[in-house]
Specification:
By secondary structure, this protein is mainly alpha-helical. The chain has a domain at 1-38. The protein contains three helices and no strands. The chain has helices at 4-18, 20-29, 41-104. The protein starts with a helix and ends with a helix.
Length: 105
């Protein structure tokens, strides 16, 4: 692994031979880490394949989730008339209690 000291020595040697500008340009062209850490084309192809597989799995799970949401929506819509009826009955009951309390007061 190339150390920072090695990189500095290389820069100084380049600067002596080529000058400051070209030496800085050459150092910019070098990877900031060791060559073992640089991704190769085959690495990118493998990652693309994995990402495509994960994308397919995610799309399948999203479709399943959409189905479950649609099912829940249907259940809520089926319960809605009962909830409205119960709410109206409760309001009528409370109104009757208020009227009865007003008569006795």
């Amino acid at each position: 692994m190339v150390s920072d000291q090695d990189r500095r020595e290389l820069y100084e040697a380049l600067e002596r031979r080529l000058g400051g500008g070209p030496a800085a340009t050459m150092m910019e062209l070098l990877p900031p880490v060791g060559w073992a850490d640089v991704a190769r084309q085959s690495d990118l192809v493998a990652i693309r394949g994995e990402m495509a597989q994960m994308r397919g799995e995610l799309q399948g799970e999203m479709a399943q989730l959409r189905g479950e949401i649609a099912e829940l929506r249907g259940e809520v819509r089926a319960q809605l008339p009962r909830l409205i009826t119960a709410n109206i009955a409760s309001m009528i009951g409370v109104a009757g209690l208020v009227l009865a309390a007003a008569k006795f007061a």
